[in-house]
Amino acid sequence: MLRRHHRLTAVLMWAVMAAISVAGFAAFEADPPEPPTTAAGTTIAKSMLVGAVGTSDALPSVQSESTTDPTASPTTAATYVESDLAPVAEDTPPTPTTVAEATWIPPTSVERWRPLLLDFFAPSDVERALRVMWCESRGEPGAVHPTSGATGLFQHLPEFWDERSAGAGFDGRSAKDPEANIAVAGWLVARDGWRHWLASKSCWDR
Known about the structure:
Elements: H1 2-29, H2 39-53, H3 59-66, H4 77-84, H5 108-111, H6 114-120, H7 126-137, H8 158-167, H9 178-192, H10 201-204
Helix pairs in contact: 2-3, 6-9
């Protein structure tokens, strides 16, 4: 009986010592929990703290760290791209340059007939009439074409002269008569335009 009591006491002592050893080993080996190192971890920890405490005292600090300033302007890649681009000057179209048309000064040989031209041509046709006269006869009332026989200041063809001079009111007048020649030319232009002098157009239509 006494031997059994000693054996039971030894077993109990061993159990107590083993429990004390395990508890001491766990106390030395267990590392303290590391504090959260991220913003998310901090937020979770504080939220857990709020739940543990049961109050909303920690909410302001949590909200201040998790919210962003709504007034802050967003920075995007497009912002940097636009700011880095150098302004490009627009191409300025070249200023059109105009070359003034050379004013034709009638030679004296034709200019002397201007008063008669004003009598039988429309004012808008006088300058062209001077050019045509210059190209046809150089202003010589007695000029005759060696081949066609065209005569006078505007080189009227002989086969049409009688009919046309009569139509213009100068029946019986010579084609070498400056007034009659100019009068018939003015009458033809008023009726048909300048088509009777198309053969020399490259000379006078400039």
